[in-house]
Amino acid sequence: MIQIDLNEGEIHLWRLNLETPPVDWQISGLHLLSKDENERAQKFKRGMDDYINTRIFIRKILSPYINKSPEDLIFDLNPYGKPFLRHSDIQFNLSHSKQWAALAVGKNCELGIDVESTSARHSTLDIAKHYFHPDEISQLERMTSHEEKQDYFFRLWTLKESFVKGLGTGISTGLDKMNFTIDHKQAISADFSPDLQLKNPQDWHFFQYELHEASVKNWCAVTVRSSNNINLVWM
Ligand SMILES: CC(C)(COP(=O)(O)OP(=O)(O)OC[C@H]1O[C@@H](n2cnc3c(N)ncnc32)[C@H](O)[C@@H]1OP(=O)(O)O)[C@@H](O)C(=O)NCCC(=O)NCCS
């Protein structure tokens, strides 16, 4: 079995195009799923194939990091539903949009990842006004073109979601508790509300990528909490 060794601070990013998964997975990969995963798959009215392919993807990707067969991985959930590997120093986080499943893998760190398609037609400014920090709303309001607003909204949204997924508490944390800025050099900075009681705010690192396929643009944000220097690699 191939083994992958990760150094602390090294983050591997994997993605699966859910529109073109490996053709044999639905047949040869089904046995990798646990009883619970199989039962959950059967409950899907729509999206069952995506769910199954994503579970196979997670198991196949994580397996060499912990030197176990894909079917032998055991997952637990934190009180907010964040999955983690039992008895392991390998951490991971998953996000799926319509087209992509993306997985971040690291060692002895906290991880969050979020992918969103920017094709949504709803009024993103209304959503921002409801959920974002006042400074972020001001940044959006100052933008003149609809395209620029829409794009910046999704950049902020994915950063926020990846952060609350890194915290492990999810959106119940309140998306106005953090204030992100992306400057003209694409540098990302964040201020945090004291409510979050972050012990070492400087240990939280943020990264962002565009995932393009055909005409649809997706933003992907990754949050890492670690006191090490971070090196992210797309695999
Ligand atoms: C986590 C959350 C932000 C996901 O947002 P999303 O953009 O809709 O979905 P994404 O595709 O990016 O992420 C989904 C994946 O995140 C992971 N996840 C679930 N809960 C998580 C959490 N609290 N923190 C980090 N990751 C989480 C799972 O792997 C999930 O995949 P699955 O649905 O296939 O199991 C949102 O669902 C949330 O806030 N959940 C918390 C709910 C909660 O507070 N529950 C408490 C009672 S259990």
Describe the structure.
The protein has about 240 residues and is α+β, with helices and mostly antiparallel strands. The chain folds into 2 domains: about 100 residues, 4'-phosphopantetheinyl transferase domain (Ribosomal Protein L22, Chain A); about 120 residues, Ribosomal Protein L22, Chain A. Helix content is about 30%, strand content about 30%. β9 and β10 form a beta hairpin. Bound molecules: coenzyme A. Coenzyme A binds next to β4, β6 and α6.
Features:
Ribosomal Protein L22, Chain A; globular; 11 strands; 30% helix; binds coenzyme A; 30% strand; 235 residues; 4-stranded mixed beta sheet; 6 helices; alpha+beta
Question: Taking Cα atoms only, what radius of gyration do you get, to the nearest Å?
Answer: 18 Å
Bound molecules: coenzyme A
CATH architecture of the largest domain: Alpha-Beta Complex
**Global geometry:** globular
CATH class group of the largest domain = Alpha Beta
Count of extended strands: 11
The CATH topology of the largest domain is: Ribosomal Protein L22, Chain A
What are the low-pLDDT stretches, counting only 5+ consecutive residues below 50? none
The helix-and-strand class reads: alpha+beta
Share of helical residues? 25-40%
Distance between the termini: 18 Å
Strand content: 25-35%
- In N-to-C order, the SSE pattern is EHHHEEEEEHHHEEEEE
Provide mean pLDDT, rounded: 93
Which assembly state applies to the chains in this document? single chain
Largest sheet: 4 strands, mixed
- How many domain units? 2
Corresponding CATH superfamily of the largest domain: 4'-phosphopantetheinyl transferase domain
Strand order of the largest sheet: 4-5-1-11
How many helices in DSSP terms?
6
